[in-house]
Amino acid sequence: MTKGRPILVLLCLFTMVFLSGCWGAKEPDELGFILYTGVDKVEGNLLEVTFGIAVPQAGGAEGKGGKSERELEIVSVNAASFYGAVQLANAFVSRDLTFLHNRALIFSEEVAREGLEGYVNTMIRSRELRRNTFVLVTNGKAKEFIASNQAILETYPYRQMEFFLEGKKFVGFIPHSNLNMFYKALKSPGEEAITALCGVNDGKGRGIITDKEGEIIQEIAYLPGEIPRQGGNKIDIIGTAVFRGDKLMGYLNGNETRYYQMVKGDFQSAMITLPDPENKERLLVIVLKVELGRPPTIKVDLKGENPRIQIDLLLEGEIISTQSSTNYESGVEKAELEQYAGSIINNEILAVIQKTQQEYQSDIFGFGDHTRSFFWTWSAWEQYNWSEKYPQAEVEAKTTVKIRRTGLKIRTSPLPEVKGGEGP
Amino acid sequence: MDNNKVKIGYYEVTAIILVLIGTKAFTGFPRFIVEAGLTAGWIIILESGLLSIALWLLISALLFRFPGKSLTQINNLVLGPAFGILANLIFLSYITINNSNLLRLFSEAVILTALPEAPVSSLTFLFIIPALVAVHIGIEAIGRSTYIALPFIVIGTISVLAAIYPFMDHWQLLPLFGSGVGTVLTHGLLSVSGFSEVLILAYFVPYFSFDGSKLRRLGIFSIAVSTLAFVLIVAVYLMVIPVPGAQENIVPFYQLSRMIYLGRYFQRVEAIFILFWTFTAFLWIALGLAVIAIIVRDMLKIPYYRPILPALSTLFVSIGLTPADFMQSIEIEKFILGTIGWQFTFIPPCVVYMLSLLRKKGGRVKHDQG
Question: Quick one: A275 and A201 in the same domain?
Fold first, then answer.
């Protein structure tokens, strides 16, 4: 054994020559990392697939070489199939294109209306794409969206979409939507799929807002491209694309998305602006920051002719802003404000549900999943055909708002009489 | 190797059985179960586990009638040399085909998850050569390695299941009886072979350093813990990737690990999973090779198993590479575990037990007196 040991050691050392890599090994600088993929339809029933490929930082590490002019190289290829486009792109992109770091799949409205099943099946099968890849539908062209997007504040464009879709939980108008969620809902007999909605904003908005009273409650009722604004990134991500099966049926605006998320239980927090109930004629507003007090309670009853859905929602709030001198922080006024906010939110929720029932016939809330307990077997549940029953369902909602905090003020004192107020 | 000198401790044996049974969780096993029971997949596991415990009680009763003897020897004693060899061959053929197929499945799974360009033959060698070396060193060494590895495997598995918690939705476990009561019960019966590795205890009896009376408890404990683990894994799988999508994934546990996302700084962790998964696969193949070598040695009544290891390894690789493609391998695994496995594993020893009672062979009192 002792005699053989040096030979064994030499043999091991010699083996290392052959262990320097494995089949299929690739260095990072051989790869072209696709960060965004867009799918459009073009003439001849061809696909136009757009890739946003990360451009390596010029000069090496951040801070030394600084940012290169562009973070993304945008290329588009027309092909008969998705992977056909990927293959063709390799004809003019020097690096091997890979989806390992792809963060978002963006489908154009046209493609989404035709149906996404084929694309989603392809992507779920992929070894490179992950199920937590974000899925978005744009109300324009996917190519335009990717080209217009500028990661203005980001050193790493990779993070941008993550900030939008993971980090913006405090606004409530960007729904969380990834490949897994879409696929799960697509295949479920009890739920329909959604995606986040995005688009290009050319700075025109949807026109000048003149009716302030009407606009207060609908403060964020925008679709992408409609937000009246100037400057900044030229894209908007706001609202929800609603599907029935794999086909796009329509959109929910930012406001509706917020209420959709409340019922779904995905809502984290948001600031809601309401007309001041005591000072409506002066067009004053109250801003509440609300969050889910507990997951919504949803009960579905299948005993009657039509299914009955009952939603019980508890929201907890904090007063962020009041413009009047009314003391909403305590007493009767606080109770009135809670009731007022609850009734407004309740009506909005019912309106959104009604829209999905009548306009889209699509149960994006997943109420159908709550009917599972009525059936012993999968086939019986499937045969019940919830998606056909949903539009006729009778929906009741009860929203309770409880104001738990009032910011740094405990009460609001009116202006002195000498200054035109009501006095103490 | 002289088997009279080789002894394995209680905890090592427990670890071996747990790894042998539990490794299936990292193959397509959870998917077969979901295919059979849909949302009631976890009930199938529960039923199979309870049934396996009942069958193990019968088999351990057989072992008690012949203290210190392995099932190979018992088969010869009860059935006579000719039928004894036949009974041993039944289990041997089952475990050889099953192990060889698993060698292929794990090799293919590595291609699928980590080394997409590697030829399958190179990966089968990657698994079989270390297994061959390990078995050559001895069953004690494998036992100790398994004992040391088990906590890491358990921690790894629990970590994946815990990290996937944000994706769970308990509604996805309903309707309760999934594919229907009859179908669930039938598949629960057919799937007992998922726990058939407990039988290896019966072949390892001469190697135990502990009292044989603990055998029954060890088997029950191993099956119970494995049942719990399988139920948990299938339930989590169903809650995260519900039916019908749950029927689509080639390697469910890998798919779960790929989905872990606990913020930007804790994602893409499946590489860690691949490490402990590959190590578990290696242990499984080594243990399988050791078991087969021991059975063959006992059957042929030769003193050592080392000389037959290269031949058995070649047989493993040859059978493993026989299926034309990955899909065929998966079908074989499904057929073995979900349809015919129980006939080759639990049934023969139970029949031998009945015969030993009828023929009044063995028996603790008689043996002690003798």
Answer: no
Domain count, chain A: 2
Cβ–Cβ below 8 Å for B172 and A369 = yes
**C-alpha A275: how far from chain center:** 27
Beta carbons of B25 and B197 less than 8 angstroms apart: no
Return d(Cα B69, Cα B85) in angstroms, integer.
15
What CATH fold (topology level) applies to the domain B10-369? Amino acid/polyamine transporter I (1.20.1740)
**Cβ-defined contact of A23 to B117 (cutoff 8 Å):** yes
Q: Is B256 on the interface with A (CB under 8 A)?
A: no
Q: Do A147 and A229 lie in a common domain? A: yes
Cβ within 8 Å of residue A388, ≥6 positions away: none
Among residues A220, A255, A290, the one where a domain terminates is A255
B242 has a chain A CB within 8 A of its CB:
yes
Q: Do A329 and A419 sit in the same domain of this protein?
A: yes
Q: Which residues contact A79 (CB under 8 A, 6 or more apart)?
A: A46, A47, A49, A85, A87, A88
Alpha-carbon Rg for chain A, nearest whole angstrom, is 27
Q: Where are the domains positioned within chain B?
A: 10-369
Domain-ending residue, one of A192, A227, A255: A255
CATH of the domain at A304: 3.30.300.210
Q: Are A251 and A300 found together in one domain?
A: no
pLDDT (tens place) for every residue of chain A, 424 residues total: 556 788 888 887 877 776 666 777 788 888 999 999 999 999 888 999 999 998 886 444 444 445 556 778 899 999 999 999 999 999 999 899 999 999 999 999 999 999 999 999 999 999 889 998 999 999 999 999 999 988 777 777 778 888 888 767 788 899 989 999 999 999 999 999 999 999 998 877 765 455 666 667 778 888 999 888 888 888 999 999 999 999 999 999 999 999 999 999 999 889 998 888 877 777 788 899 999 999 999 999 999 889 999 999 999 999 998 888 788 888 888 899 999 999 999 999 999 999 999 999 999 999 999 999 999 999 999 999 999 999 999 999 999 999 998 888 888 877 777 777 666 5
Our measurement of the distance from residue A52's CA atom to the centroid of its chain's CA atoms, rounded to an integer in Å, reads 20
B197 and B13 in contact (C-beta within 8 Å)? no
Q: Give the domain range for residue A276.
A: 268-424
Stated as kind and residue range, the H or E segment containing B188 is helix B181-190
How many beta carbons lie within 10 A of that of residue A393, not counting itself?
19
Strands A104-108 and A134-138: parallel
B chain contacts of residue A159, beta-carbon cutoff 8 Å: 264
In angstroms, the Cα distances linking B243 to A313, B203, B239, B296 are 29, 39, 9, 43
A147 and A182, same structural domain? Answer: yes
**H-run or E-run covering A84:** helix A82-89
Q: Would residue B292 be called left, alpha or beta, if left means φ above 0 and alpha means ψ between -120 and 50 degrees?
A: alpha
Does residue A12 form part of some domain? no
Binary contact (B264, A379; C-beta < 8 A): no
Which of A166, A373, A377 lies nearest to residue B179, judging by beta carbons? A377
Tell me: do A34 and A120 sit in the same domain.
yes
Chain A and chain B share a number of CB contacts under 8 A equal to 69
> Residues A334, A398: one domain?
yes
CA distance B285 to chain A (A): 22
Find chain A residues with C-beta within 8 A of B119's C-beta: 23
Q: Judge if A181 and A290 occupy the same domain.
A: no
Smallest Cβ distance to A24: which of B118, B167, B176?
Answer: B118
Residue bearing tokens 């009859």: B182
User: How many angstroms separate the CA atoms of A336 and A320, rounded?
Assistant: 17
Collect all residues of chain A within an 8 Å Cβ-Cβ radius of residue B241.
180, 184
Tell me if B144 sits within 8 A of B19, measured CB to CB. no
> What whole-number distance in Å separates Cα of residue A42 and Cα of residue B10?
69
What's the gap in Å between the CA of A30 and the closest CA on chain B? 16
